[in-house]
Amino acid sequence: MRLSRYFLPVLKETPADAQIVSHRLMLRAGLIRQHTAGIYNWLPLGYRVLRKIEQIVREEQDRSGAVEILMPTVQSADLWRESGRYEDYGKEMLRIVDRHERDMLYGPTHEEVVTDLFRSIARSYKDLPRNLYQIQWKFRDEVRPRFGVMRGREFLMKDAYSFDLDEAGARRAYNKMFVAYLNTFARLGVKAIPMRAATGPIGGNLSHEFLILAETGESGVFVHKGVLDKTVPADVDFDGDLQPIVDDWTSLYAATDEMHEEGAGAELGDDLVSARGIEVGHIFYFGTKYSKPMGCTVAGPDGAPVDVHMGSYGIGVSRLVGAIIEACHDEAGIVWPEEVAPFKVGLINLKSGAAETDAVCEDLYAKLEKAGVDVLYDDRADERAGAKFATMDLIGLPWQVIVGPKGVAAGVAELKNRATGERVELSFDAILARLAG
Amino acid sequence: MRLSRYFLPVLKETPADAQIVSHRLMLRAGLIRQHTAGIYNWLPLGYRVLRKIEQIVREEQDRSGAVEILMPTVQSADLWRESGRYEDYGKEMLRIVDRHERDMLYGPTHEEVVTDLFRSIARSYKDLPRNLYQIQWKFRDEVRPRFGVMRGREFLMKDAYSFDLDEAGARRAYNKMFVAYLNTFARLGVKAIPMRAATGPIGGNLSHEFLILAETGESGVFVHKGVLDKTVPADVDFDGDLQPIVDDWTSLYAATDEMHEEGAGAELGDDLVSARGIEVGHIFYFGTKYSKPMGCTVAGPDGAPVDVHMGSYGIGVSRLVGAIIEACHDEAGIVWPEEVAPFKVGLINLKSGAAETDAVCEDLYAKLEKAGVDVLYDDRADERAGAKFATMDLIGLPWQVIVGPKGVAAGVAELKNRATGERVELSFDAILARLAG
């Protein structure tokens, strides 16, 4: 993509109303623009990141055996009356009345809709187990939306719902999601720690939150430092027994300040570390909380109806954009992990309009594109080198290729690693080999 | 994907309330389930088709130089007061009041939001031309939703918005979309004809609809039969002059019955044919209709402010699923064009549970998956051959591989082309070579 034809409104000033670093950087780097309180336009650069995250989340859900569907954003209120949550949910639910005076709502979550869908289709225990997931926009009418996409009103979630015959089956479904989440966050290039959690309005008695560690995180956390070194096993067999992996990850102390009791873990001494984190995932087992009132049953092996055991599993996809920035930035701007970077390479022409640098840049650009490398080419003729450097550091692409007249005369350009700041001069072919290899 | 682990509720009965063939087939083939009037759940098979269409639309927008963004579904009513459309839009607009008593709405279209976004960013004629597009859910509170996803309330659109300095520039933007649409529909495997259209509530004075021809189409159309044979030029240069292509496609008579005047085209004699079609795209040039009241100006080359010239360009992405089925089906079910088929291959095990057919099927399944071919493997042990054949024909995958005990003994399986009905017996290796080649 040529920057001269893109839509990348970077801001020099720090927006006054943005209180946290991810919100400031998302506005400054031209990832989002506010439409109205808590509701954002995703600009081209931000939307590319959002879609990359979404795709990684999708691939890891698929790998675990979950099946993708899409439920509507606008729901019938009647189902929420069946489950008993319609009155409980309070003002965070955006209630809507349609032209025929029917009560509708913009879904803040989809337990009712998916339970209704499943009960209309599943007949027998042979239709189990299933895990249905979607990646869909939701709305929560926050009284005071803030922190950009971290606490917005319209937000993108991955939400999965498992259906099993009994608690043992549901536990297996829960473990699959637990491990899929470990895989997902590892691929996103961040450290996420599962912590036992309160279940809140979703209900149920088994629940974990996943928090990304970041110095600027919203929540205090207390963790055994051994948790920080744990790795995710490669090539998990999702049909196998995942309990040992779950046990391994949950054997050491890890709690949000909400769940941490004064003095808990004191026996750990220096092994207990205090840190900060951002919640990006939450998984729940809640048994028959929805299936029972809503009549979601299947015929068991003996023919008698059984209430289906369910769980639900969320990942805050749009929130992750902010959370990753909280974990991955420096003074100059964002430092994207390569897996979610909007482009892999930023190509800087230090003297756009000069025949020699133009020719080299056009050639590098064409060859990188042809090799399938995502490149953002700063070909702007009316920007100085300093502004181009600052923009490229701000938007945080993993690699910068800097082409200037002196280097071109010597047959080299500079390759800069955004994360380490390391710069090397290389021949054009060597740069291509490094980036397209 | 193994059917035993999928979520594919096919119906044997024809749903009573579905009046058109695409609606009936989408319900019967397990593509969608209604949530409430005009609002649908997309089941796994249907959602795969929707995403394939979405991706082709996206690639052709990108190729034309349009840049992808995402605007919110929930919009502030204030912008619609600025443009003057808030009161005009009537009851089809889903109006919402948030917890702070602010007037909001679920966007039926995004001219106001994108104009507001663009005016907050563009400063100079150097920021033009631009074309910003999104693929986003919209809501139109139809008084009588019907025909499944063809006239639903919550629906997925691709909508693009172009910004130019003057009418000549806007015409170039219009032509790019015109040609991008020809490319898009050709890739989707259907015949779509551009026809001069009324502009309706979007406004403006230049507009074309694109209609897919289908015998069961909703609209009558009158076209010079020469239009039916026109092809889309390969490898268009979107920076070049596209007017000749547009002129070529619009030189012959083509009109919907709405635009067709009694007796028009009579001089064409037998060259004028009457057919039926389904609107799947609509493009508009409307000049300064929104930029002027909303103050979307840029500094022109002389420094004086200029109202930006705009156009908007829609494709009904969810509607296309139904429209393609209207154009592509037979007595037995759907016949997907390969480009949008949810899976390329359906693998039928005629005797699931028998060691010999199981072994052959597992081997074929693994090898096809490894080669990157999307396969739906009917491994169900409790279904008869007849039901498996009927299901596979109904869901319309382009290729069926039929593995039975007799064939396995002879070292062959049957390869069936869904569209032609042609069947050939081939060795397993020959089948792999045909499908993965």
Automatic annotation (TrEMBL), chains A, B:
Residue ranges occupied by any Aminoacyl-transfer RNA synthetases class-II family profile domain in the UniProt entry: 38-337
Root EC class: ligase
Keyword terms of this UniProt record: Aminoacyl-tRNA synthetase, ATP-binding, Cytoplasm, Ligase, Nucleotide-binding, Protein biosynthesis
Catalytic activity: tRNA(Pro) + L-proline + ATP = L-prolyl-tRNA(Pro) + AMP + diphosphate
Main location: cytoplasm
Cellular component GO terms held in the UniProt record: cytosol
Subcellular localization: Cytoplasm
GO MF: ATP binding; proline-tRNA ligase activity
The UniProt record lists the keyword Transcription: no
InterPro entries in UniProt: aa-tRNA-synt_IIb, aa-tRNA-synth_II, aa-tRNA-synth_II/BPL/LPL, Anticodon-bd, Anticodon-bd_dom_sf, Pro-tRNA-ligase_IIa, Pro-tRNA-synth_IIa_bac-type, Pro-tRNA_synthetase
PROSITE patterns given in the database record: AA_TRNA_LIGASE_II
Enzyme Commission designation: 6.1.1.15
Annotated GO biological process: prolyl-tRNA aminoacylation
Assembly mode: Homodimer.
HAMAP family cross-referenced by the UniProt entry: Pro_tRNA_synth_type2 (MF_01570)
Role: Catalyzes the attachment of proline to tRNA(Pro) in a two-step reaction: proline is first activated by ATP to form Pro-AMP and then transferred to the acceptor end of tRNA(Pro).
Family: Belongs to the class-II aminoacyl-tRNA synthetase family. ProS type 2 subfamily.
Record protein name field: Proline--tRNA ligase
Species: Insolitispirillum peregrinum
